[in-house]
Amino acid sequence: MPDSQIVQLAKSVLESSTKIETYLQENDLPPLSFELNGTGRFGTIPVPADIEATRYKALEAGTELVELLRGPSGFFNLAMAYNGASLQAIARWDIPSKVPVDGDISYASLSKQCGGIPELALRSILRHAMAHHHLFVEPRPEFVAHSPYSLMLVQEPLLADSFWLTSDLGFSTHPHLVEALTKWRDLEPNHAAPSHQAGKEKPRYDLIQEDPAVATRFSRAMKAFSIFPRGPFTVVQNENSVFSSILKYPWDTLGDGLVIDVGGSTGHLSIQIAKNFPNPNRRFIIQDLQNSMAGFEKTVPEDLTDRIQFVPYSFLDPQPCEGDVYMFNNVLHNWPEHYCVRILRNQVAALRPGVRLIITDGLALPRGEREGLLAQRAIRSSDLLMLTVFNAGERSEADFSRILAQADPRFRIKNVQHVWDPTVNMFPQGIIEVIFDA
């Protein structure tokens, strides 16, 4: 009699976990653990790519096993709707920074450091986070200490910024999706959930720019998403291992020239390209709104200042700079389709025959190729996030073909490279190489 699905999944988890544990033991590496003496700093266990793939296989089978055992009725749990509330509180009150790295703190003292939040509320919030998210531990009655998960938010400030973005800013926005769609019934960027939340018909980025501190932290959070691994392991590929899909493109085949990084924020991806594909004759222009310039000046290394410069520019206006390559990294999924057409059309005035556009964005696998559960969830979660925040979304290859044709019939897709590496991507992505045929 063949094994049932739950037994098959359990065997898969055991097989993969055993392979991982064997590798860690044979290489004197720390085991995965919820204890502080386990993995050490976040994402620092070096493993080859096949071990990371094995981890992902175990994670996928384990997720399916848990949900199969929970069953349909177990999904409809009233308390699940509130699981993000504890994360929002931890991010809003910056609790990780208030808990000693070595030692613990009483709820009473923590209450004072959080501006008088009632102790009873703190207990409920933190004990929920301990049970559901492995954030913090209670080593003795009425005292709180760090777990590996909460400690990483102290050790890695950029991760704390990304945690704030998803758990505080994001959690407070999501309930407004349905309200915004019900009220406006369109996909204009100034009618998305943040607009409804703020009571202002302004798009998300305009609302963010109203508060310089929020804008600065938002930029840091975006950087964190592009440079950190997605789990406890760091995949050892070579000395130039990277965590951005855009670096999967063969930049070394392009030779010299000028790369225009459109909507490039503070320039962290162009800096990675310059470092990983060294070419003294390749220059970069980072284009974004003026308020990103200060972050750029802090980010660009001194040895690259002669090759990388910042030019204030909004891609909702005609492109003023002539270049050889125009890079759009996770830009278009932030905009409704008719705005994507406008953004791409705005580049045309600066283009000459043979110029390339390199578009990196969320992209589902081609129809007919099986997407695993976690890949499906990743792309669908990102799609819903883009809808919530921008009235936009992730797109298919056919969607991009249509958008490019509407922007200008001279745009020709030369190649589409699908990228789904959980160590690099938050969701399945595509690198779309476009040639301008004048």
From TrEMBL:
Keyword Lipid biosynthesis: no
Recorded superkingdom: Eukaryota
Molecular function in Gene Ontology: O-methyltransferase activity
Family annotation (Pfam families): Methyltransf_2
Keywords of this entry: Methyltransferase, S-adenosyl-L-methionine, Transferase
Segments forming a coiled coil: none
GO biological process: methylation; secondary metabolite biosynthetic process
Domain O-methyltransferase C-terminal: 257-407
UniProt key word S-adenosyl-L-methionine: yes
Protein's UniProt name: O-methyltransferase C-terminal domain-containing protein
Organism: Aspergillus sydowii CBS 593.65
Lineage per the UniProt record: Eukaryota, Fungi, Dikarya, Ascomycota, Pezizomycotina
